[in-house]
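Researcher: Last one for today. Full complex below.
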Amino acid sequence: MTTDHFQFKLLATDGKARRGEITMPRGAIRTPAFMPVGTGGTVKAMYMDQVSDLGADIILGNTYHLMLRPGAERVAKLGGLHEFARWPKPILTDSGGFQVMSLSALRKINEQGVTFQSHIDGSRHEMSPERSIEIQSLLDSDIQMQLDECVRLPASETDIERAMEMSLRWAERCKVAFGDQPGKAMFGIVQGGDIPKLRERSAKGLSGLDLKGYAVGGLAVGEPQEVMLDMLDVTCPLLPAEKPRYLMGVGTPDDMLKSVGRGIDMFDCVMPTRAGRHGLAFSRHGKINIKNARHAEDHRPLDEESSCPAARDYSRAYLHHLVRSNEILGMMLITWNNLSYYQDLMAGIRASIEAQRFEAFSTETQEAWARGDIPPLG
Amino acid sequence: MTTDHFQFKLLATDGKARRGEITMPRGAIRTPAFMPVGTGGTVKAMYMDQVSDLGADIILGNTYHLMLRPGAERVAKLGGLHEFARWPKPILTDSGGFQVMSLSALRKINEQGVTFQSHIDGSRHEMSPERSIEIQSLLDSDIQMQLDECVRLPASETDIERAMEMSLRWAERCKVAFGDQPGKAMFGIVQGGDIPKLRERSAKGLSGLDLKGYAVGGLAVGEPQEVMLDMLDVTCPLLPAEKPRYLMGVGTPDDMLKSVGRGIDMFDCVMPTRAGRHGLAFSRHGKINIKNARHAEDHRPLDEESSCPAARDYSRAYLHHLVRSNEILGMMLITWNNLSYYQDLMAGIRASIEAQRFEAFSTETQEAWARGDIPPLG
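Model: Here's the assembly. Have a good evening.
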């Protein structure tokens, strides 16, 4: 279902877990949702048709990568990111801020914005809250993120507070820059590091801006999972219940399960695709390192019950061989398997919330992971 | 159509060009045929379903690579190469000799065979004519090649003659080792470098062995195209007309067109797959270097008339971006396009022979290549 404007509906709740649906002109997003990461206009090693067929309702594009190559103006000239990358469904873009901090050189940040050098060719670029939104609009992004400053943890309270307060001010500037774009949305980002009172202040400040959705940023940046979950416990109750909540850059299947249980609706992470390129498979049985010698002569598939051909139709021995030989097909297949598992997990989560058995589903899922992989062949 | 034994039928000829069909238990091979190269049990960056859908009736596997990794005995244990790699149609394997010469270290060759060190881990291996056939049988290869010694040109007549004579003796040993395998075939390989009288002696000697097919080897190893074609002019008339003829490791679309015109039925080459991983696209309009700046903002596909999604549905600008960014999808798409073009070219060749207009088809095809790519966007 599509609507001519951005809309979020809560369909069911189970404890703090929420089952919802975002509708917008390019399609509906069933939440909780996992968004595969399409950094530079491609979900690495996948055809877009495959990504869609797995059940992904939305993908993420990286503003930093796309502004540098091929360039936002060029993408606009070519009809926008959907047409360029052949993905007709919704796209969420990050603001570029996170990658400026983690990838670029010689970055300088002040109230006005960030200046930095491209990690590709050293060229100089400026990014202000306004320019970030302009780039995301040029990409024709459906859900755009405010520019924020994400402080890597551990950091001093002073640094975290300063960055959080500036991010709040940037949220206002982004809201103005975004203006009124029917059918699209701009989300704010809660910052505040690992300090509850700063998270609270950020969440309240952003809520006052009446944005269309709220992200929790600055987590999954090296802190223990417990800290991340504590911050969600502090933050989620302060965010408006009728707006979607997006936990940025998270995470492992376990992270997602626990975060849904704290009220998160959307996720993105490079983990399934990046791990897929290195032979690490996610499955109902937990993580499987297909490079391990135990798989070398194992004719069984990764998961015979999966609906994904990569998981169901190829022997572990073949996958093992491909990955050991650095064959591109190995990356294609394990990535496919991983994205399939991530989407299946989200579908299972959604169904369990509808059935008011999210807690039981969580427990069963975690127990299956803990039991581990099927026994090696005798 | 399949048959319970290996069979070759000439369906039509046009000048020296031949339209034929090999039938065997795993399927029919329409000739002239191009065999995509599946070096290590994968046609790089492709799903096997795609390779099949493009019209490939047979693929090639490399004995050298597969014997080293994952190992012939292991492949046999896993049900053979077809089951391992999920390719149910016929497979031709080379003997391993060519790659031993080009890839391995510390190789020593004598009448008995070759000893060499793996280029992967330095392990020592022996390869005799008998062991080569044994390995190919363990792989369950449908068309097996004799072990030969391929001399890199330029070389002295003495060296070429010695290698050719030994290859002839090895052909006999391979024939004995192959024995009677119903539904399968062992091909001999004509050697003799660039020396017509040696090519003649080799072709006649092999013909006397009454093998099921004949390859022309030791060409496309650095000599000018003219020399290769001259050797075909000498060799083909001496090979039995009722047996298939396979030109090993060839080649460019132009090489194939000219070789079909001299009586060749089968080809294999890494060119479409290797070039595809480096952004070089083959097309009706000749070669297209998608990295070229002229494509950066070109919304048009590589070839709107192609039936291959990679050629028809993706903009040149997107392909350009993917290849410039070293994205795996760029390799996947250009490889797909290239194999599609190679198969389309063979289909066109086959239809033209049936219609008794191969010469006209050749001229039209070469003229289209010569006209080059569509003009850049104004």
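The mean pLDDT of chain B is 97. The longest helix of chain B spans residues 328-354.
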